[in-house]
Sequence to fold (181 residues):
Amino acid sequence: MVSGEILEPYADALMSLAQSSDKVERIGEDVAALLNLLKESPELDEFLSSPIVKAEDKKAVLQRISGDQFDPYTKNFVNILIDRRRIIFLEGICKQYQTLLRQLKQTVLAEVTSAVELSESQQQSVREKVTAMTGAQQVELDTKIDPELIGGVIITVGSQVIDASLRGQLRRIGLRLSSST
Fold:
């Protein structure tokens, strides 16, 4: 419900603004930076979401944090969200914008879970596999570490899941052994 009524219209509006001003990539970088700020600082997210904090204070804090890092269009957009009391949806709107940007660039998001940090060559190998699998022009990786996998990776692209983890292989062996007895 929130997605259809709030996130999508605001993300669509930001994308339209970005396209008309030829700043799709620049605003995409700003959106990624905003998401990173919110991820790294739960306190900032809580501060922005608080109905007790005045709009002017929220704007002042964001201005101090961002400085001249963000494009004026991005700053104005965030200020509109604050004024309209929609700033609590900032993370969702940013993620929706990234989805629109991926569609525009024909990029696929692959969520990769591994037991350890992947090297650059391993990441490139995953990108090639996903490109071959989906036919996308570009592949964006969202990596996560899960030591319980023991080894290998799990790649999720949309509803497709490729489980090449050691834990998954052991589970499949266990299933085969239990079904053959």
